[in-house]
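W.,

You were right to be curious about this one. When I first looked at the sequence I had no strong expectations either way, so I just let the prediction run and decided to look at it fresh. Below is the sequence, 182 residues in total, followed by the output.
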Amino acid sequence: MTIKQFLHSKIFRCIVVLLCIALVSGGLLAILNDLWAVDEAELIQRGVKSVCSNGEQVVSYKNLSIEYNKGVIQQKILLDSGDYLIKSQGKEGFQKGTVTVYILAHFENSEYVNITKIAVADYASSQTLMSKITDAGLAKVAENPNINPGEIAAGATYSSPAIKNAVNVTLEYIQDGLPEEA
């Protein structure tokens, strides 16, 4: 087969058509990604809305990766109320899985008072019974971080330790003075 015959063949036309489809699709994806991309500030504001009901606004935030024995502090968000919203990940859930939670820590005059709310942000797919965790169960953990896992939610007792660990890691982080580095 000569080059001229190849350029007029069906195989070459198929290759050209597929190449054009790939180029057009790639260009459209790039344009749509720019249009619909969610920036970090928007993601943080969504996290704040999932926990705070009083319309608090973000004053500042810091992405972190501070390792503790049973979890990781991932983010510290200062709200206009003076409270901190802390995103932490607890380890040692069901099948060694993790649970990421937002924890609203109430401060008065720059002094820690208590945890006022906990909201689950994300969890490993192995944490299959996380839908059993209720707001009432999370409120119990906020009141007493050393609660028995069975009291958090019936059926999700294996995922509950990861939530407890996330809360306890957050309390340890607060006791450390909310550092920005480990």
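Here's what jumped out at me. Residues 149-156 have pLDDT under 50 and may be disordered. And, maybe more interesting for your project: The first strand starts at residue 58 and ends at 68.

Coffee later to discuss?

I.
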